[in-house]
Amino acid sequence: MAISFLASEISDLCLGKPPLRPLPTTATIADAVLALKTSGEIYVSVWSSEHSNSVVACNDTGCCRCVGKICMVDVIVHLCKEENLSHPLDALQSNVSDLVTKVKGQIRHLEPNSSLLEAIDCILEGAQNLVIPIHNNARTNLRKSQLTQSPLHAPTLHYTQEFCWLTREDVFRFLLNAIGVFSPIPTFTIEDLNIITKQTLTIHYEDPAISTLPLISHSLSAQTSIAVINKDNRLLGEISPFTLTCCDETVAAAIATLSAGDLMAYIDHNGPSDNLVHLVKMRLQERNLSAMLDLMDDYYNPSSSSSSCCSSDEEFGSTKNGAVGRSIYPGRRSTAIVCHPWNSLMAVMVQMIALRVSYAWVVQEDYTLVGIVTSSEILKQFRSVVAS
């Protein structure tokens, strides 16, 4: 029964998925930031086209391809480079291709009639997003007519074919809806299934946040997180790429000036305290990073024109002093997602899906860090029913 379920077509997972708004490779990083904020999406897709008129004409030659994706974490890491901290506005005018992750296989194109098993195999091979064509000519023609160049919006591609994409979360949710067909695997504990990874990305609470940059890039690629621990190896919190995707580009200033523990507080869903904002600004002044300081002032000034790009504070989040920018997407969280070795696989899955993450920290009762369980390891368990 499980094997026949895994033969389901992935078109079943695409129902209700919105079409991607493609960003051309000729766009700037500032264009990508604007597209992220105005769309409310965590990622923006970057597309290449062989046509000078920017029309993606999808056909059998495959000239219409998604070459990558960008999220706010990519922008933040880019701005954290020493030369970019001094000239952030210049850095935002760089070509968007500078941020596109050059990881082979991270984006995979599949046909709607591909099987769920094929989708899982692609994910286990490293794919984070599966690009699926949407076969709806009426909606495609309407969408095509709506996508016109406007000085108020980031540049987009006109295209004759619409696409959506699927993520691990989509596959997870689909599996959970039919979890019974995989019985008894979901009832086993994660310890019994031996899916707890002991090697984790960690940083001490008092370490400088800037030292997390390589870890942030790695965790974004692996879709995991960075554990913030004390000297007794107890989990105090995390610096999560998912949380950073819900922030704005000025978080680069906080990463460059704060400790790991203070950074956790800075990116909390309630927004940073006035004291932390003041501390960041003071340290920017000490390092003569006036351009980054000006960028922060633009975000934290209630009358700033930078806030006008958002339709409302309610839609994108706001700080308590009225400035838009700390949380630009709904659903941002501030605490680490934890489970215990004795929890069942199904319980862990439900928690991960409910909180929209692809991992959970495994801790003992006193919060001593044991390891991490990831969506990849869980998917391997469902994939194994075919080989058994």
UniProtKB/TrEMBL annotation:
Organism: Lactuca saligna
SUPFAM superfamilies, alphabetized: CBS-domain pair
Lineage: Eukaryota, Viridiplantae, Streptophyta, Embryophyta, Tracheophyta
Taxonomy, superkingdom: Eukaryota
InterPro entries linked: AMPK_gamma/SDS23_families (IPR050511), CBS_dom_sf (IPR046342)
The name this protein goes by in its record: CBS domain-containing protein
GO CC terms: cytoplasm; nucleus
Alphabetic keyword roster: CBS domain, Repeat
